[in-house]
Amino acid sequence: MKTQLSKEDLLKAYRKMREIREFEDRLHKEFATGTVPGFVHLYSGEEAVATGVCEHLNDLDRIASTHRGHGHCIAKGVDIMGMMAEIYGKKTGTCGGKGGSMHIADLDKGMLGANGIVGAGPPLIAGAALASKLRKDGSVGVVFFGDGASNQGTNFESMNMAVTLDLPMIFVLENNGYAESTSPNYSAKVGTGNIADRARGFGMPAVTVDGNDFFAVYEAAGEAIERARKGGGPTYIECKTMRYFGHFEGDAQTYRPKNEVKEARVNDCPLNRFVAAVTSEGLVDAAELEAIDKDVLALVEKSVQEAKAAPQPDLADLMTGVYVSY
Amino acid sequence: MKTQLSKEDLLKAYRKMREIREFEDRLHKEFATGTVPGFVHLYSGEEAVATGVCEHLNDLDRIASTHRGHGHCIAKGVDIMGMMAEIYGKKTGTCGGKGGSMHIADLDKGMLGANGIVGAGPPLIAGAALASKLRKDGSVGVVFFGDGASNQGTNFESMNMAVTLDLPMIFVLENNGYAESTSPNYSAKVGTGNIADRARGFGMPAVTVDGNDFFAVYEAAGEAIERARKGGGPTYIECKTMRYFGHFEGDAQTYRPKNEVKEARVNDCPLNRFVAAVTSEGLVDAAELEAIDKDVLALVEKSVQEAKAAPQPDLADLMTGVYVSY
Amino acid sequence: MARKIMFKDAINEAMRLEMERDESVFLIGLDVAGGAGTATLDKERDSWGGVLGVSKGLYPLFPDRVIDAPISESAYIGAAVGASACGMRAIGELMFSDFMGVCFDQLYNQAAKFRYMFGGTAVTPVTIRTMIGAGFSAAAQHSQSPYSMFAHVPGLKCIIPSNPYDAKGLLAASIQDDDPCVFFEHKALYTMKGEVPEEHYVIPLGKANVVREGNDVTIVALGRMVQFAEKAAKKLAKDGIECTIIDPRTISPMDWDAIYSSVEKTGRLVVVDESYDVCGVASDVVGHVTQDVFGALKAAPQMVTAPFVPTPFAANLEAAYLPDPAKIEAAVRKTIQAKCAATVA
Amino acid sequence: MARKIMFKDAINEAMRLEMERDESVFLIGLDVAGGAGTATLDKERDSWGGVLGVSKGLYPLFPDRVIDAPISESAYIGAAVGASACGMRAIGELMFSDFMGVCFDQLYNQAAKFRYMFGGTAVTPVTIRTMIGAGFSAAAQHSQSPYSMFAHVPGLKCIIPSNPYDAKGLLAASIQDDDPCVFFEHKALYTMKGEVPEEHYVIPLGKANVVREGNDVTIVALGRMVQFAEKAAKKLAKDGIECTIIDPRTISPMDWDAIYSSVEKTGRLVVVDESYDVCGVASDVVGHVTQDVFGALKAAPQMVTAPFVPTPFAANLEAAYLPDPAKIEAAVRKTIQAKCAATVA
Lengths: 326, 326, 345, 345
Ligand SMILES: Cc1ncc(C[n+]2csc(CCOP(=O)(O)OP(=O)(O)O)c2C)c(N)n1
Ligand SMILES: Cc1ncc(C[n+]2csc(CCOP(=O)(O)OP(=O)(O)O)c2C)c(N)n1
Ligand SMILES: [Mg+2]
Ligand SMILES: [Mg+2]
Fold this sequence. Notes:
The complex is a heterotetramer, with two copies of chain A (326 residues) and two copies of chain C (345 residues). Chain A has 326 residues and is an alpha/beta fold.
């Protein structure tokens, strides 16, 4: 699979993953200083999932995201400057400061929104996929959701309906081992430990992959998306991964083994694994990757500076954008 | 299995099934005369399911039912006179005439109510089962629901939660081939045709049985209920059966093959099959069953006469029974 | 004289015309074609056409765009929302509005809020059609009119037609409207006949209909209650009491101008709503009128609503539960007899 | 002087005392113990104790009765209802009231209606605890106060405490109450400190608290708005304008006696609610006061509410969105300055 990707593709994928990591790690630091408002859920550690899937998508393809949405946004091509400004609640933000971290959306990019309601995405993407099917435009819908969200009724209903209506829809389960403080070992006792088992019961192909391996995700997603584009219906992809920070910023993470993240950062980091894979096979030069790192660092730095300096929304904005007429 | 049942048990089970059949067939006739108010959904044809399950239950065990609830009520021991009066909207009805066909309940009998909301029962019975578990009283909860209801999010959520919390709960799916006019071949494309497959995906034992065979249902239910009583958690039982009348009274059933019911009544009637099984093996005398038929006919006749003659609720009842205080 | 058709046929016609005019319009719901997965549903013939036959005949015309859903309201109502956020104009049929409780999130947190949360960029032209109303011995879970809960949500529009003509024009307007619309159909009106032009037309959302004009009392009545108000008004007219009847047609947005200017003329107000007064449309209208045109009021406004109890099953209780012309008449008389005891500060 | 503790600790204490007193009381919700299925949750130690730590420490005391649920609100809120219909007294925690849309049916069609539908036989003593309120930059889906939708439902009781003392006493009363209660906790009040006796006590549901007495204007304020009203009242008192502040504490049932008798004294009314006026508590109170004690009104009542838009994220917009003491003060002054233009019929 690796070798099916051009060097350009590899560099592009790496850049996305680095952007996500840098964006989130920086927000973590900024949050600690007390300048970032609201509830912030970071995606660090899960980069291979969003990127491995979204590298197959174009702007006509739709995704729906979650409370932990920054990674999906970046992977789907939402502007980083706008995102950072949005998270700071500024007029220059993607949503003019009215949405914040949990509601970043960019419909032109096919990004139907982060979402504050666990399990809200699957029905919405079923709708996006139904629209594709009716228009016969070959686009697909992808919904990202967590192990916790996998227990929400909306999710099950949408799985069944996607099969029933033969929708071009992909369910991407980000099993990061926790829903807030609760483990899927408790909340989704499927027996095998693979939540994807449930999807097969609904009559849909389902796989479980190493979500920290960009190439594994890329391959599974590619197959599913191709099938969906050709009218082959929905697929469920479970990606086993890990979040590096707390559920939200400020979470003391008392429910976690002490060294879990530390060890994962060393042994199982999706970016490190990507770097090792592509450099060991000589597909990409380490120096090129480092250049990207530098670029991204500068970009994120700039986004924070500009976000901080940007103006707040006008007070008149309070009363606009409710209906099309006001 | 048959032989594990005493003659007394067999006669009791038969009486229940006959009561259900007679009650429903009579309502069908009465409805046609225009004297029965509201939406009425009849259970004729599905008698072996409610009876095969409820013969294992006592008043401490709880069941939740559906819009098609008369059979479950009778099987669980709700008074037939009160039920008929309720369906006629009379003061002497089980609910004083305030509930009607879709809301018959008798909490003392462990009957948590018919329900107008498809899929409302599973969470409620999960609660009943949780109560049993906390009290350690050895009781179980049983939820009946249809093939259509099997697609409701509440149902899936409850299946998962029953596994998670190890609840003494039994899911009884009455797959009668239609949800209003929609077939489960369309709305629940599980592949094998057995909706019970989904339950296994959730990590729960699941079986599919011939729902027109009292003994098959009785056996599967017995096993599941015994396991649940012993702390072995939930089970899913799919019963393939058929409804003999329309979705509701007044349904022209344009979606049904012409002879479907006619043939089933001849070849696959749960009562006929029961009679054949017990008489051919000489367990029960045909005459004893006929005596029951006569009894039941008289009982149902009486229930209709009394229901018709009974007074309407007092107008003052309009404002009572909302809260405990009024 | 124009053709007379039933309320439900007017709704059917509005859907048909919109689907003809605009390829992005589709209908999804339970049994809206009917018979899916059975031998009888072919592309020439639907079966049920919805539980009460409202969409009958549409499936053969638009076999791809009349879609039966599994009983999974969150999924299919949410899909109607999602598809509409992606350029379609979905009509989602929530059979009975009583079922809102299994799918409300997709309407009140998703459809209603997209535009605002996303900084004014989203357009979600979804229409939800759903039945309301008591009077059929359908008891507590199939007789409700929970529109005030929807009206409480900024971002949704709420439409309540009271006759066949309005039903057709308002539904067309809802489907064409770029905001999420919830269209409440009173099941007791389905067989009401009225004049309905065959051609396409729209009735603008947010404009009340003044059904009758009179100088003594303003009656604001919703949906089926409009007929009852008319009966009461006719009776009162015999005693020389002349009522204005306002049918708001949409309760969100509410046409306050029409209501306020009428109350400014009559000084008296009766609101008739078959739902509850508690946090409902009746107290909403009285509350806003009082805040905004207090000086015009000559007497205490009156609310004629269902009492604060679930809908009972028994026919006699249900009749007592519902507002009726006699109750409306009594409320009007009360506003006329009352002397304003307000003292000037 | 009595012990001062925080609002959230008062809630924790009420739950603990009820669980000690009554074996049938249990708590079910998301992460209410916290850490389920992880290595860290043992019977001696919970992890989170709820998303904001409100139930911290209860799991070690009652390991069988503090139950973490999967993220399946319909299932576990429904289970709280079902268990309560079977002799338990469940406390179901719906983390944010904003999430009502995924499980509302189990409350409004099930818990609320059992007793009536079943002819007065059912008893369903379930209590749902849930967070409300804006002010945390939590945006449109985590800042709502949708209690008027619950208040619209006969069969539910709705409780909104405004201080730690009331929180403890009202929650105890809710748990002991035999009807389904929905208990709305304003997240901005969680860290508010106040005097709370250590012993068990209850505050009866349905009784308003008169927070302050004054002869000029009646202010009805809910939850967090009570503090804001007090600030405004203090300011106004300096100008000789004396306000009565009524905290209804429960909005269903509403203590109309307390409100009506105050308005009969003052003749002026301001209602402060951080939710919407449209079909909300504010218009409900104004509507009912006007219908029932119209003669006492000396001026147009005023509503101070959020504008009819979703809760915005940006801090400056959110501040502008919320009612505040200045807006309350202005509304009070408006009722004072207004001359009653009502003419006697
Ligand atoms: C309907 C609903 N219920 C509960 C919550 C609160 N909540 C937000 S995120 C979360 C955990 C989600 O876990 P998971 O789906 O595994 O996603 P992760 O946070 O691990 O990415 C919960 C319970 C919510 N936002 N919406
Ligand atoms: C939430 C909800 N959605 C839809 C309905 C309307 N409805 C009532 S019964 C029914 C079909 C149920 O089919 P199934 O579960 O197979 O039960 P059956 O009627 O076959 O016994 C439908 C759609 C409802 N009552 N509640
Ligand atoms: Mg997770
Ligand atoms: Mg069925």
